Amino acid sequence: MLVIRADSERKQELIGMALSRVVPSSCLIYLTGDLGAGKTTLARGFLRGLGHAGSVKSPTYTLIEPYEIGNRRCYHLDLYRLADPDEIEFLGLLDMLQDDAIMLVEWPEQGQGALPEPDLLIRIRYLEDGRELVIEAETDSGARLMEKLALELDAVVKS
Asked: Which residue ranges run through the membrane (predicted)?
């Protein structure tokens, strides 16, 4: 488990960028936290770290925002508005999981029971002076990723 403090929105984006540098081309990442905790901020940093130059908006209303960045495919999902986990099938999420793609999933608890175990679980919590990110590996692939991520984050934490 890694626990990181982000005292600014920029630092949270830098954490996302660090994550993007070590993630393989196929990875499932869950982002949890209260409304406004910064899940989309982290996703924005991640996508910019992959090389996306455009805007990154929360997929709250579209549910899924696909990104083709170089030779990589990334899906940013927000499941907040799902009424039932069975809706996952209608979104085509299970098909997307078969792709060689990175998936950033906000509000995964809304799809509980219909979603597979993530490689990484990132919980974002409010602090008085910023945010705390708790990153945990949930799979063997995630555990290997955590080792690389710890090295990348060392520079971000010191900045």
From this structure: none
Q: Which CATH superfamily is domain 2-158 in?
A: P-loop containing nucleotide triphosphate hydrolases (3.40.50.300)
Cα dist from 133 to 12, 15, 87, 113, 156, whole Å: 9, 9, 29, 24, 13
Rounded CA gap, 19 and 104, in Å?
11
* Strand, coil or helix: 4: strand
State how far the alpha carbon of 85 is from the alpha carbons of 7, 79, 116, 142, in Å: 34, 9, 12, 24
Q: Could you report the per-residue pLDDT of 16-39, keeping only the tens digit for each? A: 999 999 999 889 999 999 988 899
Domain ranges of the chain: 2-158
pTM, two decimals, is 0.91
Strand pairing report for 102-106 and 2-6: unpaired
pLDDT digits (tens, 9 = 90+) for 44-75: 999 999 999 888 877 766 788 889 888 888 99
